[in-house]
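Same chain as my last thread, 249 residues:
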Amino acid sequence: MSQALSTRETRDSAREIKFLVAPDVAARIRDWARPRLAPDPYAIGEAGDDYRTFSIYFDNGSLDVFKRQGSNGRSKYRIRRYGAADVVFLERKMRNASMLVKRRTVVAMADLPKLLDGDVDPGWPGAWFHRRIQARDLQPTAHVSYHRTARVGLGTWGPMRLTLDDQVLASRTQDLVFQPAPSTPVLPDRVVLEMKFRVEMPAVFKHLVEEFALQPQSLSKYRLAVPAIGLDEAARPAHEGAVAGPRHA
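reply #2:
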């Protein structure tokens, strides 16, 4: 999944709609989507639309990102790896109701330890990410992986993307390692379906929603992973009662 070394993207009217579906429904949706949408150009597999994704999410000791508290609650910082690639993507994602702002930089896997150093060469492409996580006191917190099917197309308002994510697994982590063990199933009997587009839903997505009677969900894999691996309990002060943190966002 080769990309430019560093990208910044601001998308007005960016839309991301998610659904939870049963595995058998997901299989039918894959069959429905394949003749109607093109395979992801970077994917592999028999249909050319499969890959495995690994992400390390950052948060602070109070889990402000998870809880959407303060300035940390408005953005996500993560490192993403595709399959067995020897490069990774340092990502910051911020969004509101009408705009998505995403910054993404490619660095070598071998350079990841630099993110845990106190100082880093300002000329290193990942220096901006290091500076942000240091300023926000963010540390590696959770590792999330999943299998993805991705199909793409072009609509009236620009690119569209349909993804189906299953086999979602999560682990606690304090390191920049993409093979933590053991891993806990997060959604063992559900598949995350996501539609990405701009301005208004393309006709092909409208047909899909109608044919399969899909109901949108507000959810985040990271925010589902935190309670699944018990991080919300670990972050709670001992004197507090058992008040459940947000499970969907």
